[in-house]
Hints:
seven-stranded mixed β-sheet; 32% helix; alpha/beta
Amino acid sequence: MTSTDDHRPQPLPITSDPARVPLRIANSTPVQPTYRRLVRFAGWLLRLMVDRDWDDAANLPATGGVIVVSNHISYFDPPNLAHYLVWNGRWPRALGKADLWQVPIIGRLARATGQIPVERGTERAKDALVHAREALEQGECVVIYPEGTVTADPETWPMTPRPGAARLALASGAPVIPVGQWGANLVMPGKHPGWPKLRPRRTVSFRSGAPVDLSDLQGRTDAEAEAQAGARIMAAVTELVAQLRHETAPADVYDIRVGRRVPRLDAR
Length: 268
């Protein structure tokens, strides 16, 4: 009989770069073979392209449903975020624009690895949160960018959130782990994909924070609760980004709906 402990993350070999630990050691949790092969190749490729500055993701639960929220700074950051999560023991199921599922190869891989399409602007958009909640109930790690798109802030700070992440968190009760990242935007800047700028060699940095406290809002479905939850989520992410940038975040926050920074909602 196989022990239930067999798939727990094993102690990692001592190394200055945790991403150089073999995947079979860093993450032995069962997953679709296609997903494991894809991640192994992507990890090798990313190690060639950039350096890494990761924390140990001590706040990321080793098992059970969890929502990971992060700032979105580049089309190059999703594979790097996945790299960070997989090598810290979790296989991400990310919510992404449904248009990607129509792209040859990318769409096939997204389906094969269980990623979750979001058909924004349609009646089916809410289905993504249904599928995400089902994934959480099955003990999965669900990744969502609260901003919904690559930031349009002129200085690449996190923007105001869309309601999806907060809505999912309040409905599911799953822990919400904020992750701040920086560096992918220097490899592929702007809101449009392009050729990566690999010289000079860049460092991609990640920090995770303590679970966002939403206990007083759990179970509520009103707009005020969702707005408050969203503000707390983005405040936690922004704090981590400020640490990585060694800067203080602006007093106001960019709102893509009006095309400028607006006062932040009190996140208390």
